[in-house]
Write a structure and sequence with these properties.
Blueprint: H1 2-10, H2 40-53, H3 56-67, E1 71-73, H4 106-117, H5 124-145, E2 148-149, H6 156-159, E3 166-167, H7 169-186, H8 205-222, H9 228-241, E4 251-253, H10 266-274, E5 287-289, H11 291-299, H12 305-308, E6 309-313, E7 321-323, E8 349-350, E9 362-365, H13 367-379, H14 388-401, H15 414-423, H16 432-446, H17 452-462, H18 490-494, H19 496-505
Antiparallel strand pairs: 1-5, 2-3, 4-9, 6-7, 6-8
Helix pairs in contact: 1-2, 2-4, 2-5, 4-5, 5-7, 5-8, 7-8, 8-9, 13-14, 13-16, 16-17
Length: 520
């Protein structure tokens, strides 16, 4: 499976050739360096990799990671989320619609896979997996941008549609949930799958169903503030269908520390190549862990602190050691500096023995999140068979166990997990608001770095964890934490009519302070 990652990244991104003339000139028009047809397996692998890695540094790290106060920076240029500057970082995810670089073109790739397998009844499992992955990629895009091209998106090659209309997020969500339900029902255990081209499940149909139901649970819960009745329907349907609960069913993509940059874990590669390059001293983008995150982990005596965080120590100022000692860990306040602070080297940053390993895995969807969603469903009265307290404890245990995937540096003993739960018991007797705060704040910790996009969406939906905004001079939001990504200016140039219609429909603005439909 790991070798396949390297193989697919070497393949040509486009698999179409121009039509030939006639009179035997066909061979003259054939490019020997390109395939003459779509290879669904290759394209599906590419769509998986591109779907998770789009614009990580600009979006998940600098914009969301800082605004959700996991990271901080003293510099102004990369302070999209720290000081609410530089909206351009948030435009990069639009590249999921098209492009040839790493993390770009996920929509085009998955559309091509769907087109290639949709007419063959024997490929029903491939089609279902592709439709589910399309839903995954699109839910991220619409959660970031609101109304976006959906029904007509990714059809520039197939239909020559270069100006797709924007669909409402409400209509998109309805179709995403429909796509998940239909895809689950269409799976046939007797038919072929993507096999080793499927980097998450190796073609396991049962696991794909659990992944789809888990995504349905996430999307259903997203509707709680705009349509509680519909939210309840889909949440109950997802729980009844069966979501990811066991470690063995987690959706995980493995990466390799190979010679090709694109075969490495894109999070580790992004952080190492853009910020945390040299131990000790300054960092390229001025980044460190945020005070909000480190203080919370220390105050709750969370053993994950020693897994994710280090401080560089040195006896001679030349040779540095990554020190995980709890007492040394200290977060940098958000928007507190505009020059290198004298104590910069005392602040915590990512652990090179876990987070910054090129071979680190990516947990696309884990059982920590599903159990926290079950806990919320229980509080709302939408889940039977489990209590919120049980689901919460299961989530904490799963969230700590998952770090063992990162090697010995990530292993957390059961004794430490038990001690954490004893110190931080679930607030069974608390108010609904108190229970929600505990559940959603735990999600802020459990999904740290692996899915900053979901943390951002969940914070906008629930308001938890409670974060204190910064108000750095000259910021772009008036001292408000960003709530939406900005659609690139190119859309107003190349798709003007549709773009303006969507912008008007969403309040007439296209800024970091705009809101999406479900954000009430």
């Amino acid at each position: 499976m790991k070798r396949l990652i390297q193989k697919i990244l070497c393949a040509a991104p486009l698999f179409f050739l121009l039509s030939s003339c006639d009179k035997g000139f066909e061979e003259m028009n054939v490019d020997p360096n390109k395939y003459s047809e779509v290879i669904p397996e290759y394209m599906f692998t590419r769509a998986l990799l591109d779907g998770v890695s789009t614009n990580f540094t600009g979006a998940a790290y600098l914009t969301i990671g800082q605004s959700m106060q996991h990271f901080a920076t003293y510099k102004e240029v990369p302070a999209a989320g720290d000081k609410y500057f530089n909206f351009s970082y948030s435009t990069g995810n639009w590249n999921a619609y098209a492009g040839t670089g790493a993390g770009q073109g996920a929509i085009v790739s998955i559309r091509q896979v769907i087109d290639a397998v949709s007419t063959n009844p024997a490929s029903v499992n491939k089609l279902s997996a592709a439709r589910i992955w399309k839903a995954y990629v699109f839910h991220r895009l619409t959660d970031l941008y609101g109304d976006i091209p959906y029904f007509e998106a990714g059809k520039a090659l197939s239909d020559k549609n270069y100006g797709p209309k924007y669909d409402t997020q409400q209509a998109i969500y309805a179709d995403l949930l429909k796509e998940l339900e239909q895809s689950i029902a269409a799976f046939d255990a007797t038919k072929a799958t993507f096999g080793s081209a499927d980097l998450m499940f190796g073609g396991d149909v049962v696991k794909w169903k659990k992944f789809a139901y888990s995504l349905m649970l996430r999307l259903g819960m997203r509707l709680t503030e705009v349509d509680a009745a519909t939210a309840k329907t889909w949440v109950e349907k997802a729980i009844a269908g069966g979501v990811i609960l066991e470690d063995a069913d987690r959706a995980v993509i493995a990466y390799v520390d190979g010679s090709q940059t694109a075969s490495r874990n894109f999070i580790a590669n992004g952080l190492l190549s853009t910020d945390y390059i040299t131990p000790g001293g300054d960092n390229v983008e001025g980044g460190k862990f945020a005070k909000t995150l480190i203080d919370y982990l220390k105050n709750t005596k969370d053993p994950r602190l020693n897994v994710i965080s280090i401080v560089w120590t040195s006896a001679d100022g030349k040779t540095f050691t990554a020190d995980t000692t709890t007492a040394l860990q200290s977060g940098m306040p958000n928007a507190a500096y505009n020059n290198l602070p004298a104590n910069f080297n005392t602040f915590s940053e990512p652990n090179p023995n876990t987070l910054l390993k090129y071979s680190a895995p990516l947990i696309v969807f884990g059982n920590a999140e599903t159990n926290l969603l079950l806990a919320e469903a229980s509080v709302r009265g939408w889940a039977s068979g489990t209590t919120a307290a049980t689901a919460y404890a299961n989530a904490v245990r799963a969230g700590m166990r998952q770090w063992s995937l990162f090697g010995t540096g990530g292993a957390i003993s059961e004794a430490k997990v038990n001690a954490y739960l004893a110190l931080n018991p679930y607030k069974t007797g608390g108010t609904v608001a108190q229970q929600m705060e505990q559940i959603q704040t735990q999600k802020w910790v459990s999904l740290f770095l692996e899915d900053e996009y979901e943390i951002f969406a969940n914070w906008r939906r629930t308001g938890y964890p409670v974060l204190t905004p910064t108000n750095y001079p000259g910021n772009l939001t008036g001292g408000k934490i960003p709530t939406r990504f900005v659609v690139p200016d190119s859309e107003e140039t190349y798709n003007k009519t549709n773009f303006i219609e969507a912008r008007t429909r969403q309040g007439g603005t296209n800024t970091l302070s705009s809101v999406v439909w479900w954000d009430k």
